[in-house]
Model the fold of this input.
Amino acid sequence: MDPDGDCIGSSLALGEFLTRLGKSVQYFNEGPFGRREIKEFAHFFHSGFSREHRRNKDSAVAVVLDCSTLDRIGSLADDVADMTTAVIDHHSSGRDFGDVKFINPSCPSTSLLVQQLIESLGEKPTLKESEYIFFAFATDTGFFRHLGENSQASFQLVAKLVEAGASPRRMYEQISSGVSLESRQHLGMLLNRVESHFQGKFLYTWENLQEINSYGRTNRDSDSLYQQLMNVEGVEILLVLREEEPGKAAGSIRTREVIDAGKLAARFGGGGHARAAGFLSDLSVEETRKQVFPVIEKLLSSL
Ligand SMILES: [Mn+2]
Done:
């Protein structure tokens, strides 16, 4: 459920390959297909099992891709639970399901695992499969930006996709174009009201319910906002408070290198990763701000 580009691209690449081997493939995903870059693929996927799907379950195998736990497939889990299940994944945690597993947490995308599976059978990805694998890889790696040292194996795999005809330029356009003007204007509003505190180490912005509704939640582009602000010189912590419900706030925290965002969010009942985390507050944006600012000030003064 709530799939990203890697989940969708990996599913379609594997499905194309299995179809090429003469297998009959059906795609499932509960959705929603909220991310702009995957919307065009939504029509390939069933959101649940039909009566006919259930009738054919005994002769079928389920392959779960890019999910670290079975509950990540949402309501489909009930139908998949008693099926023979294969798992292909690259998450480092979770996972207590699956009869056959192909899991490699050091692989930057599930799609590159699908590519290795295809190659291990002595085959090469077709152009279409290559494009799905590249698309999935590019969305999970921020178009190569999240790759560090020791990523040569990934580049070697991707080189083969380009050799098969996948165009990085076309893939980039597919992933990044098509944004709405409203989403840029929304971004402008949030950037315009950014406050800089504690010698520029802390950036803060916010929005109220009325603004959230007037720009439309589908026009939200949080990734761009975080990216723009985390590039600002000297910033260590970014906090965005949003009035998602009347009188309640949702906080998003991003940190650069020193401060653990997950630990910081945990102090307000939330959680997440070292660089990205979030929390929900029963207080208004203004009250939440008053609660969080002193904690951040103390953290920064100890640096
Ligand atoms: Mn992934």
Remarks:
- The chain is about 40% helix and 15% strand.
- Residues 285-301 form the longest helix (17 residues).
